[in-house]
Design a protein that fits this description.
Low-confidence stretches: none
Order of helices and strands: HHHHH
Shape: globular
Number of domains: 2
Mean pLDDT: 89
Distance between the termini: 48 Å
């Protein structure tokens, strides 16, 4: 199986899993749309390394705090089709992560 075939398989299985979780109400429509958009950006377009790094930074430090809920809402509201909007989202999330670090200092 080639790398492209594996990517297509991972993509198809991921889309199916996300859709299934959405239909079973394990994900909100916003969460489902975000994950599908993220999957498209990462696997199909192979873009947005800063988005991926920012998500990783958040996930590695997510404490379920009020700031984390704001970060989640910010990500869910991100417009993947508008580069300027996405950059503003990433800047805001980065600032929120820094703010949380300072509070926990």
């Amino acid at each position: 199986m080639t790398f492209d075939e594996k990517n297509k398989r991972v993509y198809a299985e991921s889309v199916s899993l996300i859709a299934d979780m959405g239909f079973k109400d394990k994900l909100s429509i916003e969460e489902m749309n975000f994950l599908l958009n993220l999957l498209d950006v990462v696997i199909v377009k192979k873009e947005q390394p800063r988005l991926i790094q920012t998500l990783k930074n958040w996930m590695n430090t997510n404490e379920g705090s009020e700031i984390d809920e704001i970060i989640k809402a910010t990500f869910l509201a991100a417009d993947f089709n508008d580069q300027e909007s996405l950059e503003q989202c990433l800047q805001l999330v980065t600032e929120l992560l820094e703010s949380r670090e300072e509070q926990n200092g």
